[in-house]
Amino acid sequence: MSGLHLLSHPLRHPRWWALGFLGLCLGHALSVLLPIPWFSLLPIAGLWLGLAAKLGWGAPRHARYRRVWPWSLLPLALWWLYLYLSDGFGSVDLGAVFFHLQAGISEHGGAGRITAAVLYTLAAALSLVAFTWLIRTDKRWRLVEKVLMLALVAGNPLLFGLGQRGAAIVVEEDGAWLDRRYQEPLLQGRPASPPNLLLIYLESIERTYADRERFGDAYADLAHLGERGTVFEGVRQIDNTGWTMAGMIASQCGVPLMPAGLLHDRQFEPLEAVVPGIDCLGDLLSKEGYRLTYLGGASTSFAGKGLFYEGHGFDLVLGREELVPRMTDPDYLNSWGLYDDTLFDVAVEEIADLETEPGPWGLVVLTLGGHAPNGYPSRRCRERQGEFDGVDILYSVECTAWLTRDFLERLEARGLLENTLVMIASDHLTMRVSAWDQLILGERANTVMLLGPGVGATPVTREASTLDLYPTLLEAMGFDLPQHRAGLGVSLLAPTLNLVERHGAEEINRRLTQERALQQRLWEGLAPQPESAPETPQEQVTETPRDQPETEVEPL
């Protein structure tokens, strides 16, 4: 009994509870930030406790308890916020954070992230209590705590990103580098028989999954579709294009989504419109007589999707609220909205209706099945693939890939794809999922493929970004563009070098932190205007004089 008493006595001391919990927190943080498995937190916590025992942390020889408040409490809390975002999304995009605060997040389907937020908040609070106890108990920690506070502030990527963007406002930098490269989208030539357009966004299903050695047959059905058309390899993700609305705006408007008024007065005001200052795909096609429809399984009020499509030429914008009444089983929903099998069924009937009327049509479809962290595999897939374990993202990727192939085959069987160009694209690279460690082993790329009349079955391997999909799509439809350009994008069907090929993704990302003129262009009428506007409009040039050769068509 005495041995058990001696063994249990340390566990009753607050020192070991506090130090043990801090060790677990440190282990969790490293497992989130580094490519190490989650269970690494246990040996990391063990090493921390061993060091604490050796150095006597929390039990100095001349202990003197002082009721002080640590300087590091706020920096530690901000690190917990960063860990929460990084754990849920893989990488933290400040643009996404600000945009969603402005555009609205009330109709989200991420119930799991709410649970995670509660757990993170609880863990953060307990860690702050434990750290406060350590500071008050151990003088050595009090002596180094201010240095630790500075390190926590300087090392937090969230604060570094805010500081970087804020510095761009006051530092004399070229804040119009991207804006000078913006090309107003102009249709200089038109096809004799304009094709219909079917644009399918596959939520988070990037081309990286095509690697069979790492991901097996998860992407096989999409690879089969790609054999019939043009597959674009090397379409990277630059900053401000890495979430659903940003990905759709990049590929339909040729610009990164820079939030309205970042660090300005409109930072947290609800949006009245989404990128109203530029013409996007819907604006151009509606003027050409296209009847345009958007279909998505989630709510159109989330992240401004409805505002964007309604404000850019679409006649019909349908999301969860509008589509549920059409369902034979309105209870067959996931936390976001419609499963992909239901959405594709609706899309088939929508296309059949569009085909009954004269003139070209355009339909944009956004799936949900591949949404991080685990996906939402449909009932039809469960019947085909067997039981879903609730975690494996590859199961969900395979499901949506098969449903997409089946969807197109059904349309072809009914003769609904005649004179129709199909683009299949991931809206963005996936965020943190069960296959994350495998995904980040190498360079990643978005899914992009074209199918339809006149599209060759030839892969195109080029370094590019989703900004280039806008002019690529227009030229594939038969429209002529000045210098093969629209927005910041360059058609991947033309020999002109694009921004990524000329400057590299890192340089574009660096410029995005300094850009102000392009932001004002996107949100013209909404974003704060300069106090003194120039008397004459700024001349729009393709490049600065030293970069002028970029306007020439060059061989690849």
Automatic annotation (TrEMBL):
Sulfatase N-terminal domain: residues covered: 195-478
Keyword Chaperone: no
Subcellular location: Cell membrane
Topology in membrane: Multi-pass membrane protein
Name this protein carries in UniProt: Sulfatase-like hydrolase/transferase
Transmembrane residue ranges: 40-56, 68-85, 114-135, 147-163
Domain of life according to the entry: Bacteria
Taxonomic source organism: Halomonas salifodinae
InterPro entries attached to this UniProt entry: Alkaline_phosphatase_core_sf, OpgB/LTA_synthase_biosynth, Sulfatase_N
